[in-house]
Amino acid sequence: MTENGYHHERVLTVDTMNPRVKEVQYAVRGPIVLRAVQIEKELKEGVKKPFTEVIKANIGDCHAMGQRPVTFLRQVLALCTYPELLEDNKFPEDAKSRARRILQSCSGGSIGAYSASQGIEVVRQDVARYIERRDGGIPCNPDNIYLSSGASDAIVTMLKLLVSGEGPTRTGVMITIPQYPLYSATLAELGAVQINCYLNEEKCWSLDVNELHRALEAARKHCTPRALCIINPGNPTGQVQSRECIEDVIRFAAEENLFLMADEVYQDNVYAEGSKFHSFKKVLFEMGPEYSEKVELASFHSTSKCFMGECGFRAGYVEVINLDPEVKAQLTKLVSVRLCPPVPGQALLDVVVNPPQPDEPSHATFMEERTTILTRLANKAKMTQEILNQVPGIQCNPVQGAMYTFPRLNLSQRAIQEAKEKGQEPDMFYCMKLLEETGICLVPGSGFGQREGTYHFRMTILPPPEKLKIVLAKVKEFHQRFTERYS
Amino acid sequence: MTENGYHHERVLTVDTMNPRVKEVQYAVRGPIVLRAVQIEKELKEGVKKPFTEVIKANIGDCHAMGQRPVTFLRQVLALCTYPELLEDNKFPEDAKSRARRILQSCSGGSIGAYSASQGIEVVRQDVARYIERRDGGIPCNPDNIYLSSGASDAIVTMLKLLVSGEGPTRTGVMITIPQYPLYSATLAELGAVQINCYLNEEKCWSLDVNELHRALEAARKHCTPRALCIINPGNPTGQVQSRECIEDVIRFAAEENLFLMADEVYQDNVYAEGSKFHSFKKVLFEMGPEYSEKVELASFHSTSKCFMGECGFRAGYVEVINLDPEVKAQLTKLVSVRLCPPVPGQALLDVVVNPPQPDEPSHATFMEERTTILTRLANKAKMTQEILNQVPGIQCNPVQGAMYTFPRLNLSQRAIQEAKEKGQEPDMFYCMKLLEETGICLVPGSGFGQREGTYHFRMTILPPPEKLKIVLAKVKEFHQRFTERYS
Ligand SMILES: Cc1ncc(COP(=O)(O)O)c(C=O)c1O
Ligand SMILES: Cc1ncc(COP(=O)(O)O)c(C=O)c1O
Q1: A171 near A192, Cβ under 8 Å?
Q2: Which among A298, A289, A356, A292 has a CA at the least distance from the CA of A323?
Q3: In chain A, N or C: fewer CB atoms in 10 Å?
Q4: Does a structural domain hold residue A154?
């Protein structure tokens, strides 16, 4: 009781809060990253460390790793932001014409107005044409495009629609493991059942339909599987799935009545010889009406990856295929509650899907910048796998695409034991030690899921070549030290 | 069965989808707005109508209604977007220094990098100082600031944390009616119980603590009330609550153990003489440690309203006060799943809370633009209430703040009967007819909630003065016609 005669207890505590939120885990920005930020502060305060800077190879963030923005994209965005610049003859005409077109499609001619909740119509049209070009002419209806605040937003929204039921009718969602933790986090928050199906590490993280069947049968005993999520090219695993694999998956989804979610945010990040990106949509349509008129598919894309790496703008989209029209109306209603995705991001997406053409003044520079970035990434992918595979006790699949390697670590029983005594996953223990001793920040494999008894870390290939070389050398050195210490 | 021997049913239908999503309603972008968009298309196609343009007075979107962006804000944003412009002597030094400071606080010096999930630290510091100035020096800790993708995002996140339980332990959230439908939509989606407490229309939409008690007691029979949401200045009602009212609410929350959510996105939109904005935080702290050390408060703000009206950038923040540290850690984890709020929006927010100072070159222009916009809004608020109150059968409270009027409509029994026969709410019937006959798009009161048997519409005061005059004249004319027709 207080002076005022009332007894006040805290309303919101970990005991009273939403229990589903408590279940959520998100390793990419988890304890390792929090500690990395702390260490950075300590370094600034003059604390002595065996290193002088923290290198964050934990997150797929190109600009954070020093990649410069693509000139044309930023020119158009600056023009949209401050249209007075349209009078400035320092800006090329193709940038200006795009900016004018975007501004004309904004309410009141300003990117400061809310847009339609589904996204600006002109941008959706441009996205649709882009998808048609990508897929060799397979038609794309702009009404099936929903722009979003990063792909994350669209993925969460689609999962939201899918989840229902309690007990054995509870929605199960299949996801290939290792997975990007947005999926596990969202399923936990929504109270859905996560159904793990394991990628085949021995076969370069390919997906085997037998494993899909195994996982599905096991899951049917306790929930109602309704969707299957595939990330291709893969995060954290960096593989690019073959056309056959995608056909298998589509056939599987068709036979087993599953809604397909294809996370294709790395579609332009394919490096390995012999690897090629096949969109789920294209394969679906090429399999004939038997499939293309039936299988429900949501495909996600983002401006955060590829060559532009514009994560901060939070732009992305989902294309929905064969979505029930009534469900589509529900989707449209649902997205309207948050009003609209960020309009600068929509403008950026528009330029990404509508880049300078050969007859336009910015074409040469644009192509040069794009090619340089993608070539560098390809080189770094190769260098990463080569150097890591030289380390005894580390095995690394080729980085065919995306921006990551997910090498396997041979950890000794002693190391595993010591981690367990600390209450840590063995690869968390490893990554924490790596951070403290070298300043390199990676994410332990346990944050993504992995086969019981295997250990990994995820590392991005994004640091500039010189720095990446140093990072790899340090990891190598550390791994040898670690192995000796716990042998 | 198909040729391939499998039987495919649609996975996702309105029968199998998430039932909570089905419950969601969102009137501000509901059927009226869909019809308005259709009519716009019809007009373009040359269909004859008794009007030549659709006027959307349904949404609080300043730029869509022709308000021009504030120069200084856009200059800084253009500089952040295309840093090459920092070399351009057309941009004032104060804009450049702000852009440099923002860019330095971005990873890799680019607004294209993900930021910390809670928001850029420098921006949170600037927000904290802004809040301290606003509240006469009451301290604000940047660690308690979470930047968000519009206030919407922060509101949804806080509600998410609060919701738990089933049956009688299910979380109840009190909300003053009429309310902004983001609240009802989010509560439906989260499966929480919405507890309605009615504002007093007769007393200028003030909030009476007896009504809070009534609603709370009634709700305790079937759920567990845990939070109270107040929108001040009010949307859709346009009132500004008195200091006494806010004290009453805080005392009520303290006594009844409720988490307070103060939606203060219209804090700079106060027009009426004698009205003043009092932040919940300031009042809380001035009530002494008995309250300021105990009552849990989340206060929301946005760049979408005020003088800047930058809705498209999707920027906002929440300040949390007395939040349990463990819950705070959960909040930090939860926001990390979506990576980060849009960085251009964070940059914009930084400039809004850190505007040009008297000794800086942009100060005069900035102040002039700001004052012009706010003065115009004040004039339009006055004009709106004056003209509407001249219409027999319409009663309109003073528009003390925000951007809306929510006048009461006297509808005849015949009109109500005819609406019912059509399966429509009477004010939906009214607004639909208004749209079809005049092209004016308003939102029916039923979309926000209102006392049984009363009818309203919400109209923004945002059209330019000349257009607003026409809108009001048309509404007047229409109301008279409608009244005669159904008398
Ligand atoms: C596989 C995958 N999907 C989705 C996302 C989300 O990206 P964004 O929300 O920035 O578009 C990421 C980001 O790293 C990712 O790796
Ligand atoms: C009362 C209130 N709260 C929150 C919002 C959300 O605004 P935003 O998400 O654009 O910041 C609005 C928008 O109209 C509003 O009126």
Answers
A1: yes
A2: A298
A3: N
A4: yes
Q: Is A60 in the pocket of ligand 1 (CB under 6 A)?
A: yes
Averaged pLDDT of chain B: 94
Q: Which residues contact A273 (CB under 8 A, 6 or more apart)?
A: none
Angstrom distance (rounded) from CA A266 to CA A306 = 6
A23 in contact with B, Cβ within 8 Å? no
**CA-based nearest residue in chain A for residue B154:** A338
pLDDT tens profile A95-138: 999 999 999 999 999 999 999 999 999 999 999 999 999 999 99
Query: Over the stretch A311-334, which tens digit does the pLDDT of each residue have?
Result: 999 999 999 999 999 999 999 999
Q: Does B322 share its domain with B185?
A: yes
Among B308, B323, B353, give the residue marking a domain's end: B353
- Determine if ligand 1 sits within 6 Å of the CB of residue A171: no
- Cis bond before residue A233 (omega within 30° of 0): yes
Q: How far apart are CA B392 and CA B356, in angstroms?
A: 47
Q: Is A38 exposed, middle or buried (0-12, 13-18, 19+ CB in 10 A)?
A: exposed
Q: State the CATH number of the domain containing residue A207.
A: 3.40.640.10
**Of A330, A353, A376, which residue constitutes the final position of a domain?**
A353
Identify whether residues B348 and B372 lie together within a single domain: no
Residue B6: inside a domain? no
Co-location of A136 and A45 in the same domain = no
Q: Are residues A259 and A401 in the same domain?
A: no
pLDDT tens-digit map of B152-200: 999 999 999 999 988 889 999 999 999 999 999 999 999 999 999 999 9
Residue A269 and residue A233 in contact, taking contact as beta carbons nearer than 8 Å:
yes
Tell me, yes or no, whether B158 lies in a domain: yes
Q: Extract the tokens encoding A274.
A: 């012999």
Chain B residues with beta carbon closer than 8 angstroms to that of A322 = 10
End-to-end CA distance of chain A: 60
Tell which atom from ligand 1 comes closest to the C-alpha of B114: 10
**Pairing assessment for the beta strands B224-231 and B259-263 based on DSSP bridges:** parallel
Indicate whether A428 and A328 sit together in one domain: no
Give residue-wise pLDDT tens across range A154-172. 999 999 999 998 888 999 9
φ, ψ for residue A317, nearest 5 deg: -160, 165
pLDDT of residue A221: 94
pLDDT at position B123 over 60: yes
- Domain assignment of residue A55, given as a range: 19-66+367-485
What is the count of structural domains for chain B? 2
Ligand 1 centroid distance, CA of B359 (Å)? 44
What single-letter amino acid sits at B27? A
Full-model pTM: 0.95
Q: What is the mean pLDDT of residues B7-22?
A: 87
Are residues B344 and B393 located together in one domain of the fold?
A: no
Residue the block writes with tokens 């806080």: B158
Cis link prior to A178 (omega < 30° from 0)?
A: yes
A66 CB-contact burial (10 Å; exposed 0-12 / middle 13-18 / buried 19+): middle
Ramachandran bin of A398, using left for φ above 0, alpha for ψ from -120 to 50, beta for the remaining angles:
beta
Q: Are residues B193 and B304 in the same domain?
A: yes
CATH number, domain with residue A459:
3.90.1150.10
**Between residues 148 and 167 of chain B, which touch chain A (CB distance below 8 Å)?**
149-150, 152-153, 156, 160-164
Distance separating the N- and C-terminal Cα atoms of chain B: 60
Q: Tell me: do B231 and B301 sit in the same domain.
A: yes
pLDDT < 50 positions in chain A: 1-2
